[in-house]
Amino acid sequence: MISVIIPVYNVEKYLSRCLDSVINQTYSNLEILLVNDGSTDSSGFICDEYAKKDSRIVVIHQENKGTSIARNRGLERAKGEFIGFVDPDDVISVHFYEILYNTLIKTNSDLILCNFQNFTHFNEIKEDNRSLYNSNEYNGYNFIKNFTYKKDTVRYVVIWNKLYKRYLWDELRFPENVKICEDEYVWYKTMFKAHKICELDQILYYYFKRANSITNKVYEQFSYKKEIAFIEALKDRIDFCKKNKLNQLLKRTEEYRNKLLRKIYLTTPTNKIPEYISVELFNNIKNIPYSKRLKIYLKKSFK
């Protein structure tokens, strides 16, 4: 059985189409965990109505505590041998779990991921009906060791386009005090633990891009907040790399984090920069090219 965890918060406009795409899966052995995170609209009511019509749905109501805690609550209640996540304003292909599950079993993988498509209007969704599609298989340790951030690496970092064997989440939970970039704290830990990862290039997940979605939030207009949250998440990864002797990934992560520190310092209003970012930046100043170092000193001088 696959346990599908869906955190729900104020998505009354989009929730029904999401739930319809889940309950109509061609793979039917599902446990659907809807965690209503203190919604103030009719989302909680919609969850309860769907549960009356489909015995596979379990609704959990809680006070508003954030996406991380909602997902953790779902993980605690999940009974399936496999774990999946769906965001409540997104849509999945009717074959999403059938293809992921069958391919995971066929390849003896522990984690499988597919490609996804962004959409802003429902009629933009185009089913990927190819009978043949490419797949790649990796050892989890080697994949993480050699991971590099690129424009097309989002599919590795997000959690919702994947199917996991349950053991990958044993003793792993989302950080409860984090509101942005929650996925950044867990994705590499599940992949590192996986003996085998399978990747499909088929588009089976449809991500709804709106200003205040769970993944996107309103922080696009205040991007420095998201970048600061990302820097904090990278610190967690640095600690993980040190603990597990992932020296190559450690070096790349530290370089990437220092680059972001510089960017935030130079592009963010001074009164909005956390003190620790300035401290870390100047502690690493000797590793910064002279031309960029000069810009930093000039900004500091004109505070």
Principal-axis shape equals globular
Distance from N terminus to C terminus (CA atoms, Å) equals: 58 Å
Count of helix runs: 11
Category from helices, strands and their pairing: alpha/beta
| Largest β-sheet summary | 9 strands, mixed
Counting copies of identical and different chains, the oligomeric state is: single chain
The total of beta strands comes to 9
Percent helix: 40-55%
pLDDT under 50 segments (min length 5)? 216-222, 296-303
Instruction: Please report which band the strand proportion falls in: under 5%, 5-15%, 15-25%, 25-35%, 35-45% or over 45%.
Output: 15-25%
Mean pLDDT: 85
Order of helices and strands: EHEHEHEEHEEHHEHEHHHH
Rg (CA only): 21 Å
Question: Can you characterise this structure?
Answer:
By secondary structure, this protein is of the alpha/beta class. The chain contains eleven helices and nine strands. Helix 8 packs antiparallel against helix 9 and helix 9 (247-267) crosses helix 10. The longest helix has 21 residues, at 223-243. It is globular and about 60 Å long.
What is the strand and helix layout of this fold?
Elements: E1 2-8, H1 15-23, E2 30-37, H2 43-53, E3 57-62, H3 67-77, E4 82-85, E5 91-92, H4 96-107, E6 111-119, E7 135-138, H5 140-145, H6 154-157, E8 162-165, H7 187-193, E9 197-208, H8 223-243, H9 247-267, H10 275-283, H11 290-301
Parallel strand pairs: 1-2, 1-4, 2-3, 6-9
Antiparallel strand pairs: 4-8, 5-9, 6-8, 7-9
Characteristics:
single chain; alpha/beta; globular
Brief description of this entry?
With 303 residues, this protein is of the alpha/beta class. Helix content is 41%, strand content 18%. The chain is globular, with a radius of gyration of 21 Å.
